[in-house]
């Protein structure tokens, strides 16, 4: 038996959780939302809607979108998107550690 | 903005989380699964299936069922069900506190 959990930032509804975080993390390395979506086996449309919904709840853009240009379209994180992702990932890493510790504390001697 | 989360015990799949815990907690005070289900606005059938699925994953009964008898049917928690619920609730209370603390730590100065 193990402890599992999901966490998300809530702003009058689910605003930012695993889905948007995974997409932003991949946009950071891949440089485009379509490549990020592909890496997750997600359609571009689904990825776009996922981030759009998060942006609506949060009230600020997560991506700076560069449409067209010399190398075609691409995306990178907005400054606030970058900051949010960094904080979310740091919080998530701490939460993972705490949840493991608490499970151990309460269930290590579970028969 | 606030941090929300859901936790559950996993045993080759979701075995025990908010739903079963809320039902068991009410069986403890109400003395019957049908009354517990009613308090949650849940059908008896749904409540029974929820606990049955948890019992299948966990591999032990959560309820001692008393069918018939002087006062009609009733249920109380099995010893292991009681022990599991106590530990789950204690873990959950600690997790609530830790998650609030971590959110404060990482997001108190979020603009």
Condensed summary:
2 copies of one chain form a homodimer. With 111 residues, chain A is of the alpha+beta class. In chain A, 58% of the residues lie in helices and 18% in strands.
Task: Explain this structure.
2 copies of one chain form a homodimer. Chain A is an alpha+beta fold and 111 residues long. Chain A contains 4 helices and 4 strands. In chain A, a hairpin with a 7-residue loop joins strand 3 (63-66) and strand 4 (74-77). In chain A, helix 1 (18-30) packs across helix 2 (33-39) and helix 2 packs across helix 3 (44-58). The termini of chain A are close together. The model of chain A has no long low-confidence stretch (mean pLDDT 92). The interface between A and B is medium-sized, with 26 and 27 residues. Strand 1 (2-10) of chain A pairs antiparallel with strand 1 of chain B, so a sheet runs across the interface.
Which secondary-structure class do the elements of chain A indicate?
alpha+beta
Strand fraction of chain A equals 15-25%
Using a beta-carbon cutoff below 8 angstroms, give the protein chain pair with the largest interface and the number of residues from each chain: A-B, 26 and 27 residues
Major sheet characteristics of chain A: 2 strands, antiparallel
Q: From the alpha carbons, calculate the radius of gyration of chain A and give it in angstroms.
A: 17 Å
